[in-house]
Amino acid sequence: MASARIEAVDLSKSFAGVPLFTGVSFLLDRGVLAVTGPNGSGKTTLLKILAGLVRPSGGKVRVESEGRELSRDERRSRVGWSGPDLAFYPELTAEQNLAFFRKAAGFVSEPDDLRARLAAVGLDGSGIAVEHFSTGMRQRLRIAFSFLLDPAVVLLDEPMAGLDADGRQAVHRAVASASGRGPVVAAATDLEDLPPADEVLEIGRRETGNGRRKT
Amino acid sequence: MKPTRLGFWSRAWAVCAKDAAQEGKRRIALGSIFFFAATALALVSYAIGPFGLPADARASLDAALLWIILFFSAATGLPRALVREEETGTGLALRVVAPGAVVIAGKAAFNFLLFLAIAALSVPAFAVLLEWRIESSAALVAVVLLGGLGLSIVSTFLSALVARAGQRNVLFLVVAFPLLAPLLLPAIAATVAASQGSFAAAPLRVLVAYDGAAICAAYLLAGAAWED
Prior knowledge:
The complex is a heterodimer.
Chain A: E1 4-15, E2 18-28, E3 31-36, H1 43-51, E4 58-65, E5 68-69, H2 72-78, E6 79-82, H3 94-105, H4 111-120, H5 135-146, E7 153-157, H6 165-179, E8 183-188, E9 199-202, E10 212-214
Parallel strand pairs in A: 3-8, 3-9, 6-7, 7-8
Antiparallel strand pairs in A: 1-2, 1-4, 4-5, 9-10
Helix pairs in contact in A: 3-4
Chain B: H1 8-26, H2 28-48, H3 55-77, H4 80-88, H5 91-97, H6 100-129, H7 137-162, H8 168-195, H9 201-227
């Protein structure tokens, strides 16, 4: 993972004219930023905006890696994202899913490497199709997906959802390793459901200038 | 050392191969397409077969019926390409890793292979059931390839456009008709000529131009259709 930074500049998002959040700004070059807030406050939308999956209503996201700003296309392979609505091909195994996503992203896919990535989140490379996975196994696969392309910036939405103690430990290890090299942004309703954070950003619904950063 | 990156076509081929692997396990598109094609063929041969129409009228009727069967068989399965990604929620993961042009190229390649499989079974069955004589097989192959390519590209692109809309199946057919009519009309004309033993240059040129325009439009607009 190369040196990287992610900057949100006065981000806002509204749906049908109703503001979800406004004035969210932060700059992070390493460590963990926890994003918290009540249900419907826009945490998931904020992370999707940071990942380039949703356009903001206002403001800008800047992602830099190795000293230069990345284009939207470059961000695909340099920003890892996972969220609760991330789904996988049910007929395929976890390894087949990861192999496909790596190839579609333009990276060579080695079976040993994929098995190691699955093992890191407590999944084996067995031939069980994802449609037979439990909720916790699917969440582990989401975590593996977010680190699949060795991203410079990692965005994790509800990373602990549905995970047992072993799964939470796996997330802690992955985040600790990633945050030593680059920025990690993790979102959940409660701070207890997130890995240890260096900074906290609270967002609340329908308030102006509601991005509050605690250090 | 930076890892070697795969090129556009390798990535598109990964999308195509994944769709083939999924279809190999579920056979939903194949099943529905072949069931529709078989039903349509049986009904058409039963209804039209006994009539002794003049040769010219029969050639035009057969060509039109063949393309109606191919079009509606394809319309049964080809839009599934990207609609299914939205229905299963996998479209989001696909958007994370691959740009629209890669996804649409891969899906269009799979749809083209699917169309060729439909044609490989439907055209000989059509010829047998309706006693349809083809004087120039090479011309017919050219028409089917060019027509199938355009049909696959436009269907895939429209599938990307309507994937996140409500009533997407109805919407697909409504939007597809005006866009595919300029493809189907020369395809039918070239098929009539092929059945009579000639290589109809004008309609084939129209098909080549249509395919070229479809490829350019799909490539340029892929991002807007699939990602935004």
